[in-house]
Amino acid sequence: MSRPSAGGHQARKRFGQNFLHDAGVIDRIVGAINPMPEDNLVEIGPGMGALSEPLLEACPALQMIELDRDLIPGLRTQFFRYPELTVHEGDALRFDYASIAGRGPLRVVGNLPYNIATPLIFHLLGFRDVVRDMHFMLQKEVVERMAAVPGDSNWGRLAIMTQYHCRVRPLFTVGPGAFKPAPKVDSAIVRLVPHDELPHPAADTEKLAKVVRTAFSARRKTLRKALAPLFNDEDWERLGVNPGLRPQNLTLADYVMLANDLHEQE
Questions:
Q1: Rounded to whole angstroms, how far apart are CA atoms 266 and 256?
Q2: How is this protein annotated for GO cellular component (predicted)?
Q3: How far is 41 from 59, CA to CA, in rounded Å?
Q4: What CA–CA distance (Å, rounded) separates 173 from 21?
Q5: CA 46 centroid distance within chain
Q6: 66 annotated to a ligand binding site
Q7: Annotation-wise, does 96 bind a ligand?
Q8: Is 115 annotated as a binding residue?
Q9: What digits encode the pLDDT tens for the residues 68-90?
Q10: What phi-psi label fits residue 52: left (phi over 0), alpha (psi between -120 and 50 degrees) or beta?
């Protein structure tokens, strides 16, 4: 199997491009995804197509979303043998994923640029109803934050909002040498699977996002101080929550309870 390299295209810093080239890592990623011919598979940021080739071999109706218009003609030429391939020129951060869910729930994969990973995850969570699963290469630190547990120093907005919508499973770490140019940090593969039923449903997810965002904007402070704009001492007593705790001490269920109370009070 040939492995396209980044040799013919200069990686663009503004797009956060680091092209994957390690054949062993590529095979391991594809094995974790386990694509099937009938899947509605979507690759975000195919780049030079190193991951695309084995994905297409397993799922010829692959859809790609690529922002760098200079790469698109090369992708179409490289994979001309796959007439079912669809390449969407567009920004994954603004893409309407529901518009391509006609063949069934989406299986989304991608080696995500570090500079857009977090906002892209939040954008995709808005489409969880049409997504079966997601497999992403991310900065290792981001994966650790997504998979964090209450009380951990990494527990915060990303973990809470991701775990509200999905089961999060880190799979394996990838070193800088697997990319050209090599990044300065380790990467990791993570699997996100939207919950069939939300374990802790919020009456209003915007309220949940507001409570979590407010709390962790002052994560070193106590809840009494961090959430002072939203709750007072009487609220804490009524809710049975110790306001002397730090934001990282509360669970997802706790934050949903606070959000639901805020929803009821307003």
A1: 15
A2: cytosol
A3: 7
A4: 15
A5: 16
A6: yes
A7: no
A8: no
A9: 889 999 999 999 999 999 999 99
A10: alpha
Query: Can you give the pTM of this predicted structure?
Result: 0.88
Token pair belonging to 16: 């956060």
71 is in an annotated binding site: no
Tokens matching residue 105: 């729930």
Using an 8 Å Cβ cutoff, are 129 and 135 in contact? no
Is cis: bond before 181, omega within 30 of 0? yes
For the chain, list the domains and their CATH numbers.
Answer: 13-194 (3.40.50.150), 205-265 (1.10.8.100)
Contact (CB, 8 A) for 155 and 149: yes
125 vs 65: CA distance, rounded Å: 17
Which is nearest to 108 in space by CA: 196, 210, 39?
39
* CB-based contact 172:28 (threshold 8 Å): yes
Is 57 annotated in some ligand binding site? no
22 pLDDT band, cuts 50/70/90, is confident
